[in-house]
Please model this.
Amino acid sequence: MMVAIYWTFDSIASGQNLTRTLIAALVIIYGIFTQSLINSRKAALEEKERTQKQLIQSEKLAALGAVAAGVAHEVKNPLAIIVQGIEYLKSSLGSDARLMDVSDRIEKSALRADNIVKGLLSYSRQISIKMERGGYCSDH
Model:
């Protein structure tokens, strides 16, 4: 294409100075367009890399949420049995203050562990919601 433009201008212009000026202008224009294309390509590659990093981070968070939810569900069932057992023991203990104190401490610890598990479940649900809003859906 550049050659056709050059031949057109060369046939129009009879003097060498005009031809050289036109060639120089065409080379400059070609250089500007080439640099613009290079810059656009570089920007697109940088954007692709940034998007890939965000996707990897999102996948890591989704996996962490899935693990947290799995662990929480596995721990929650035994805790429920422990709390129920403590309630039964407390109703069967009678008036032994020492045994009541021990059972109260066990119950408080089990309920504390249950709150930690609830926090893990809440955290894993927040990750799922966050992932869906960002366009990455997590079923965990």
Observations:
- The first helix runs from residue 2 to 12.
- The radius of gyration is 36 Å.
- Helices lie at 2-12, 16-93, 97-133.
